[in-house]
Write a structure and sequence with these properties.
It comes from Candidatus Eisenbergiella stercorigallinarum. The protein is mainly alpha-helical. The protein has four helices and two strands, in the order ββαααα.
Length: 94
């Protein structure tokens, strides 16, 4: 994903302006940390991530998630989109 002034471009999308920066930073960290994980490693990673988000009192509304997903997709490579789809399928199974 391309970056702009030290910040990933997806985070500068106008559709995300009402989402607190701490939530966007949390997601960016998730994207960065999951980048090199295998299919087998993704589920334990997502479980740990869910625990970290609860500990940090970070929750996303469906509106926020839809806006974020669309913003990320806009600036993602085909490989990143495949990885994101894989993560989303795993999250839906929980």
């Amino acid at each position: 994903m391309a970056e702009q002034a030290g910040k990933p471009r997806w985070m500068t999308e106008p559709s995300l302006r009402d989402i607190p920066q701490e939530k966007l930073d949390f997601l960016q960290k998730m994207v960065f940390e999951s980048r090199e994980l295998s299919q087998k490693e993704l589920l334990p990673f997502l479980m740990a991530l869910a625990q970290r988000s609860r500990s940090a009192n970070i929750a996303f509304s469906s509106r926020e998630m839809n806006a974020i997903i669309e913003a990320i997709r806009k600036y993602s490579t085909p490989e990143e989109i495949l990885k994101m789809n894989q993560i989303m399928r795993l999250m839906q199974r929980r």
